[in-house]
Write a structure and sequence with these properties.
Layout (H helix, E strand, L loop, with lengths): L12 H8 L3 H35 L6 H28 L1 H20 L4 H15 L2 H12 L2 H32 L2 H12 L1 H10 L6 H6 L3 H15 L25 H25 L2 H7 L4 H28 L2 H21 L3 H25 L9 H23 L7 H21 L18
């Protein structure tokens, strides 16, 4: 006589999310987070488009120190914001930070458009960066914690692909405004209009519940069940009538835990990957419009070219979404980073306008595919009590690199192109080695809940 297994007495959040499946809730969440993600892309990239007009408005010369401050201010704010808001989201809940950061981003973004002087503008851009720096760790943690295991990698890449939408929108908006208004006026409209998608994202976020995983580790089992019931209703499924499996303990989150044991090794390697990829990406693309203009392109042609490069990101994301589930997160990330290093040297060898455009498109394709794989991989490497703290720390290292990149990217304008691109290619290769050194593949695995990182 064969024995039958006893029915489960509790239900884990992972099991609940997998049983509720992929449906309307996850697609709505993707669109809501994606709208804000596109708005963040616009805020991060718009200074590269606005700089010629700001130079005209305040009498700055190209490459002036004040221009570097403006390009660095947003990233400096994001550096501090990522660390602060990532920690706050693990302590206070995902939804609270989810709403607060978007609200502040809209307020400070609009205030920059009305800046009466350069100092005001630098402060406004810093505060905008501080606000949107929090959306990076929180959005990805929310998405990772609400999507079934089999679909999680693809959805995290889909979310990152909204960056391309934001890039296209800001390039198209800058192009249209540069055609209709003098540069000294167009940049103010660009900053003001770029804040509007964030306002729409805020309104859409009001109906999103907090993460059930985060609620459970903070001792709010009833609220966690209600969040899962919300998923069940929208997906047309029934939540099993079992009590939720509560973690053995809800440890007090401390940033020091990011550097303990096996988690510490992951944190250091991930920080190096985020730093290297960001230094090269922003070093190239924050100065690319100015570099193209310095090569003799008129402003409208610069914006049209940048728009085409943004469109080249889309197939990079699409391929990354396929590869993270077929060959794994780690291999996909390493492959794209190596391709990015090769693309930097092909760009250096380009001798005609057509070759410059083609190699720039290859760089755009490879770098944004690498970002997609990295954003899919990182939240899966941290346990729930530390997920947004970890995302905040490593994405903060990317913002630190972003603060440094304008000075390095200025080499593109001073004729030291081989030096700049060799440095950036080296960053991509070092990031690839560190990504491979993590030694863990998360494809098809459930998110870790406890503090032991063993998988």
């Amino acid at each position: 006589m064969t024995s039958r297994p006893f029915p489960a007495s509790t239900l884990s959040v992972d099991a609940a999310i997998d049983q509720l499946g992929l449906g309307r809730f996850q697609w709505q969440l993707l669109l809501i987070c994606g709208l804000t993600w596109a708005a963040d892309a616009m805020e991060v990239l718009l200074m590269g488009f606005a700089l010629p007009g700001i130079n005209a408005s305040f009498g700055l010369t190209p490459g002036a120190p004040e221009a570097k401050w403006l390009l660095s201010a947003t990233f400096a704010g994001m550096f501090l914001g990522a660390w602060f808001w990532g920690w706050a989201a693990d302590r206070l809940g995902r939804r609270t930070v989810f709403l607060t950061t978007v609200t502040l981003g809209v307020v400070f973004g609009v205030s920059g458009a009305a800046a009466p002087g350069l100092a005001w503008l630098v402060v406004a851009r810093f505060l905008t960066g501080f606000a949107i720096g929090g959306t990076l760790p929180v959005d990805y943690s929310m998405m990772a914690e609400f999507v079934p295991t089999a679909w999680r990698g693809r959805f995290l890449v889909y979310l990152e692909s909204f960056w391309a939408l934001g890039t296209v929108l800001v390039a198209a908006l800058a192009w249209a405004l540069s055609s209709a208004l003098p540069p000294a006026e167009a940049w103010r409209w660009l900053l003001g209009l770029a804040a509007l998608p964030g306002l729409l994202g805020l309104l859409a976020r009001l109906g999103v519940p907090d993460s059930p995983r985060s609620l459970l580790v903070r001792g709010q089992a009833a609220a966690a069940r209600e969040a899962l019931n919300r998923v069940a209703r929208l997906n047309g499924r029934a939540l099993p009538d079992l009590p939720l499996e509560v973690p053995a303990s809800a440890p007090r989150v401390s940033p020091a835990q990011l550097f303990a044991g096996g988690i510490g090794r992951r944190t250091l390697l991930l920080a190096a990957v985020w730093f290297g990829l960001s230094l090269g990406y922003y070093g190239i693309f924050s100065w690319l419009p100015s570099f193209l203009k310095a090569q003799g392109l008129e402003l409208g042609a610069v914006y049209r070219t940048t728009l085409l490069l943004a469109l080249a990101q889309v197939p990079g994301y699409v391929l990354a979404a396929v590869l993270v589930e077929r060959v794994g997160r780690r291999a996909t990330l390493v492959g794209y980073l190596v391709a990015s290093a090769a693309g930097a040297y092909l760009f250096l060898a380009a001798g005609t306008p057509g070759q410059v455009l083609a190699t720039s498109a290859l760089l755009s394709f490879a770098l944004l595919g690498a970002w997609g794989a990295l954003y899919a991989y990182t939240p899966e490497l941290y346990p729930t009590p530390l997920r947004t703290t970890g995302m905040g720390f490593v994405s903060g290292m990317a913002r630190l690199a972003s603060v440094l990149s304008p000075s390095l990217g200025a080499l593109l304008l001073t004729g030291q192109l081989p030096v700049a691109l060799t440095l950036f290619a080296g960053c991509f290769l070092l990031a690839a080695l560190c990504a491979w050194g993590i030694g863990v593949e998360t494809r098809g695995r459930r998110l870790p809940e406890g503090m032991d990182p063993a998988r």
